[in-house]
Amino acid sequence: MRIQVLGTGCQKCKQLTANAEQAVAELALGATVEKVEDLREIMKFRVMATPALVVDGQVRSAGKVLSPSEVKKVLAG
Amino acid sequence: MSRPTIESGTPPAPCCGDAWSGVTPGAPPASRLPGTLALLALALAAWAAAYAAILPLSEWITFRLLGLSPGSRLGQSVAFFLYDAPKVLLLLTLVVFLVGIVRSFFTPERTRALLAGRRESVGNVLAAALGIVTPFCSCSAVPLFIGFVEVGIPLGVTLSFLISAPMVNEVALVLLFGLFGWKVAALYLATGLTIAILAGFVLGRLKLERFVEPWVHESMQAAGATYQAERLGFAGRVEKGTEAVRDVVGKVWPWVLLGIAVGAGIHGYVPEGLLAGVMGKAAWWSVPVAVLIGVPMYSNAAGIIPVVEALLGKGAALGTVLAFMMSVIALSLPEMIILRKVLRPPLIAAFAGVVAVGILLVGWLFNALL
Q1: 3-class secondary structure for B202-257?
Q2: Beta bridge partners of A62
Q3: What ipTM does this complex have?
Q4: Is A54 in CB contact (< 8 Å) with chain B?
């Protein structure tokens, strides 16, 4: 499972990364959370708001800091 | 949960936003609706009761419990604070909640769809209005800019949105209403919108498209499906509203209290007219100075209100103070640095210049009219 957080490094992006890492740890998935900070890379995902959560190349949430439990729901579903 | 499962690796079709509702937690909206409505009614009743109790309670605490005399300076300051602080916080909570619900209807993607294909002028007006109701954070300015430009929304219309989104701010609106009355709040709303519309229109006329960084256009050719936000039921929207309250009110309340404390201090102690000489109506140059100081500064709307309160209380002219506030929240160095990634310096300079001139004119206009 490939998990990426898109964001240019603002406070919200860091928070989402931390929450995603916590969710991954709690689910014991053993996946790493990758940060995508380069704007050109971010724009390849066609998002219009950051931070965004990408799972296996698909954008699952944009413009919102998901809580660890919300990230878990995304990862489970 | 009852939503259909999607096999991993299958990209969802762009039209089925509700079929992969992403993160909407809990039961389907239908079963949550009665509970949500009951809670909402209860909360509104509690709000109304609290609002009605503020005035008698603040007077009772000040003059009975603390035993301060109504004529004393301290008594006036304390009564002012105890009345205004809960009043503004309650108003702020209500408005932020309602704005949160309204914004759940306007995702950036939907706003873009509404603006796509509009001509300039109509587009500028619509973009400025949508700038108020679309959730926006300046750190998302670049993805939003590219998202707009790639569907062919004219540069000037896009800029109208980018000016209006930070400038017309619901927190500032509530604070101005609560502390200075509806006239000042309405002036702020109307002039903020006007500047966004006209500045975007002027920037569009200047034909600055060549100063957009070339990589923006390159990234457009790598087409693909755009992310579709989840679809929400009524309960989901109410949830968005409470989320906004937690987010916004949870963050700005210390600033609001500070602002009201400053106001309370002025109310009781500082003689009026202290600043009338340097920042009063007669000093025409005080408006450009206020804008020049305000443009590079960066603060959220709540943080700047204490300053506004202090300046107005000491006799600064309303136009000068409004110009200062607008230039602080609408234009900032951090946002320019973010936009530099997609806009080349001449365009950034034109953007800041046109908006600053607009704010300057508003400042002068108010000083002349009021």
Answers
A1: HHHHCCCHHHECHHHHHHHHCCCCCCCCCCCCHHHHHHHHHHHHHHHHHHHHHHHH
A2: A52
A3: 0.85
A4: no
Size of interface A-B (CB pairs under 8 A): 78
* Distance set, CA A44 to CA B143, B201, B228 (Å): 10, 30, 15
Nearest-angstrom CA–CA distance, B280 and B274: 10
- The amino acid present at B10, given as its one-letter code, is T
| B343: DSSP letter | B
- Cα angle vertex B134, ends B129, B138, to 5°? 105
- Express each pLDDT in A9-67 by its tens digit: 778 888 999 999 999 999 888 888 999 988 888 888 888 888 999 998 888 988 888 88
Tokens 């209100």 belong to residue: B305
Neighboring chain B residues of A58 at a CB cutoff of 8 Å = 11-12
Kindly report whether the peptide bond that precedes residue A51 is cis, defined as omega within 30 degrees of 0.
yes
Pick A74's closest partner by Cβ from B22, B135, B142.
Answer: B22
* Domain A3-76 = CATH 3.40.30.10: yes
